[in-house]
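From the pipeline queue, job 12 of 40. The input is one protein chain; the requested action is below.

Action: predict structure.
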Amino acid sequence: MNISISQSPPIRLTTRQITYYALNNALPTYDSNYSFAVRIANQYGKLSKLIAHILTVAILSMAILRIIESQLWELTGLPSLEKILLIILLSIFTIEYLGRVWSAPESCTDLPEEGDDYKEYESDLSYRFYYVISFLGIIDLLVILSILHNIIGVDLNSWPNYVVVMGLFKLSRYIPGIEIVGAVVKKERQILTASLLCLGLLVVILSTALYLAERNVQPEVFTNIPTALWWGIVTMTTTGYGDITPITSIGRILGGVAMIGGIAMLAIPAGILASGFAQELRYREQIYNWQIISNLDLFHDLDSSCIADITRHLRSIVLPKNTTVFKKNSTPDAIYFIADGAVEVQIHPKPPSPIILKKGDVFGEAGLLENRKRNATVKTTRATRLMALDLHDFHRLANDHASLKKKIELINLSRKT
């Protein structure tokens, strides 16, 4: 019984869909279906990666060119290349911007894929406008205008020339870590705002109190409350420049309270972000596992509650090439699903051709079903990511979901025959 994702003919995409996928490495119309997403990645993944690499190099080159411009030309002795490089960068970012504006309607998952009403449906939507006024859309436009100012501007040290550095925000599209930071901050924004508001209130209260304690002793230093606010910010963030310091007993007590309170208040956002990162990574892994599990032929007939139950109990295992998953005669402890990579099943006597299991296959079920030791050794043939369902979780799920147990038994029976 074959449980791998079946091979299907290529998906035909429109030019705009290809453009959107090439620029975003995603196509929302198909992303909800894992098998479609895999097929599109196989067709256009290399193109998307190539464009991502080109844009990443262009973004970094743009920032380096602006930050160390004078030193760069002194070292290379090629100042004439500056405008040529700027024109190349301007061309790359302009083409990218126009491509994103043109393909922006593809961000809508409910647009009809084809049909006579496509243009009419599209004309009623404002996805291009939403992209233009989005944060990254504004950054894209500012970078283009800044580079254009660099090319035609007379004063190379004017501030518009340095706006290109904001283009580093564009890296969030290609570096997952940056995107995760944004997602965590967005999800935890209410708690973070509350903690920062509390910190701000403490700064104002303690700074005002310190101003009242020190204004008569150091009138030339504590001239007004805004000056004391600078002291409060520097002290409560534990920076401590030392340019403004209290000298009275009350002032030093307030300074100590500000230091301790600042450490305590800054620890709250740090804990919130750490917890948010852990939750976001778990959430993304569960979504990834759900996509793989729900699109395996093995689970096509199972209801969503069963698939969700399976996904919650899976643990991810990443193994390098030529690593033994389990040995013959070992005690069964889990059933394994191949999320990515491949493994070889080594049995005796050795078959004429190797038994290779690939992405989407399951193994290790016989020992769990029949309560006996492993009858084969399984090794990875390349770097492989497995999702394991532990022994006690498997038996609990099999008892709760009879359809799951029946499917696993059919796989075991087909392999025996």
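Job complete. The domain at 189-285 is CATH 1.10.287.70 (Helix Hairpins).
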